[in-house]
Amino acid sequence: MMTSIKIKFRPSSVEGKEGCIYIQIIHNRVVRQLNTDYRIFTSEWDEGTETVIANGGRTNIVNATKERLAWDVARLDKVVAQLDAERRKYSADDVIAAYHRLTKEVSLFSFWHNVIAQLKQFGKVRTSETYAATLKSFMAFRA
Question: How many angstroms separate the CA atoms of 103 and 123, rounded?
């Protein structure tokens, strides 16, 4: 069974307004969408590579969004790996439900990731890098 996870962008129908990013999950040819609260402009999306790109004066916000998306996709990958390891049938809806359960669990790691993203948004890049290195070390220690 193969599960595909892709980041997608839906531009706003209103000219000059931010569009929304969602995550597409495909399992056994069934497509589901996981909506996010991430908003970017069309100029900040690369259609060819389907990635968020820093383009202009919102570099900190866009980079923080990019990092949080990567964290979300990593959690989805973890959910899929767990479901695959159980060796039972599951659906794209099961992936989303398990992701929501995992996300609701308030953890130090998710809190720390949010703090790092906020620091980047506020232009505190060096501090965010220090926090990220500390988090990485702590996560390695816990493993």
Answer: 26
What is the token pair recorded at 143? Answer: 């493993």
The domains of the chain are located at 3-105
Q: Which two tokens stand for residue 22?
A: 């969602």
Q: What is the CA radius of gyration of the chain?
A: 16
Q: What is the pTM of this model?
A: 0.73
* Three-state DSSP class for residue 32: strand
Mean pLDDT of successive 10-residue stretches along the chain, which has 143 residues: 90 92 95 93 91 84 87 92 92 93 72 86 90 86 69
48: part of which helix (H) or strand (E)? none
DSSP 41-66: -GGGEETTTTEE---STTHHHHHHHH
Question: Given this model, what pLDDT does residue 1 score?
Answer: 58
Sign of the torsion angle spanned by Cα atoms 34, 40, 105, 138: positive
- Tell me the two tokens of residue 78: 């973890």
The two tokens of residue 69 are: 């998306």
**CA dist 57 to 41, 61, 63, Å?**
12, 9, 11
